Write the structure tokens for this entry.
Amino acid sequence: MSKFEDKVIITAALSGVLATRDQCPHIPYTALEIALEAQRAYDAGAACVHIHARTDEGAPSWELETFRTIKDETRKRCPVILNFSTGTMDDDTSAQETIIRELRPEIAALNMGTMNYAKYSAKRKAFVFDMVFPNTFGKIERMLSAMNDAGVKPELECFDAGHTNSIWPLYDMGKLKKPTQFSFIMGVLGGLPTSIEAMQLQRQTIPPDATWEVIGIGKEQWRLLASSLVLGGNIRVGLEDNFYVSPGVMAGSNGELVEKAVRMVRDQGREVATVEQCRERLPVPGVRARRS
């Protein structure tokens, strides 16, 4: 079982790739909008931001120069830790590997297994979307090689218990190094149930020196994050995961969601980790950034 840490790392997932402005008008699309949301999240208390790039019209983008602009515009404004997404729905990881090797964010997300990825509407009695999210060990190895070459910390995104339990061959091959960072994604149909028992199982599966966070998707997010705080974990918020700061009240920015997360941390008697404390704990290298 991983040890209890008093200081909580708050990550903000700024946009994702599925949500649109028809669903939430505050989703950032352009590189500058994403950088401004990163600054708002940092100012509110986030030590890390999770980045998906978009076109100016809102479609997913894997253009190297778009990620470069996001990084540069964010660095002009704040020293928040950058975590780049690498998720792709096919087996070709060439664009993602190039971004990691060229831009060297401090952290890159790494999806740890294949799964059914779906959303169901009880009101419509139908699936809103239904797809397979493929992440073979070969794909994982390629991404890990790129991260290791670039000195980038992998954030292991585990949507199910099998994903978490599949890490040992990567340690055995020397491709995954300790201390390791885990994220437990809860609330995606096809993955972990939103129960304390499932969270406990994940927590007990990982190495004792690992760092872990809970990512709650949708309306049950805040309850899941509260449970993570009680159990000693870290938390992720942001418009990628949940639009609402409270039932029926949509957040106006990622910063508003981080502000609520900060209050929750302090209500639990814990403290919010600074960027410097987060860098030391994960660990990731430091950078210098000026504030505009």
Remarks:
- The chain has one domain: 7-281.
- The domain at 7-281 is CATH 3.20.20.70 (TIM Barrel).
- The two ends are 42 Å apart (CA to CA).
- Confidence is low (pLDDT under 50) at residues 288-292.
